[in-house]
Description:
Blueprint: H1 2-18, E1 35-41, E2 45-51, H2 54-59, H3 66-72, H4 78-92, E3 97-99, H5 129-133, E4 137-152, E5 155-171, E6 176-188, H6 200-219
Parallel strand pairs: 1-3, 1-4, 2-4
Antiparallel strand pairs: 4-5, 5-6
Helix pairs in contact: 4-6
Amino acid sequence: MKSLKLTFAFLLLVTITSCVTTVPLNQQFYNTKKLGVIIQVDSISMAKAGGQGLLDMALTPGNRFTEPLKKIEPTFALQEKVKAEISTILDSKKKQFQFIPEQIDYKSLEKFEKPNSDKKYSKKDFRNLKIANNVDEIMFVKIKYGILVSYYGVIELDKQGYVNIATEVVDLSDNTLIQQESFQTVAKMQGNWKKGEDFGNLKNAIQEAINNSLITLKTKF
């Protein structure tokens, strides 16, 4: 029964990942339309990978990572780094843009009712942001990062620094997708995660994952 639960957990992870639709950037994006950029970075956290049943998950909550992660979180300034990277990318393409400080709850956005069309649309309705922010398009960037712990049941297999970035660019005139991507970068933990001055090994692994994610971000635009 346990092996069945482990298999189910793994298959569920694969199913959720495969549901993300990838839409490569439409080069018409680099036109005269004005873009609004919203960047949301979740608080640093522990994430899990691998196969676990419900009992296994309950027995491995990861509470011991909470305080160390909170301690090193201010050193990364991830919001500012991503903002600077996106500014560099868009400036190099001479794209009109502005950052929108408004934070939105993606899950609470209204579901978009797709018309009978072959076009690809966002599953959420972003159109109300057009008039409110005087923009023609919206880029929504959602970021999660921290430590990724791999399990087989309750057995820890590996620890890595990780960053997950999901981007969605939407034409606000009709809610069509101009681009949609989701990618994750990881970096191996060099030594025990608790060792090093101020959890140096943990910090270095996450920083490496951040650096790699910013390099990958460039390739998406």
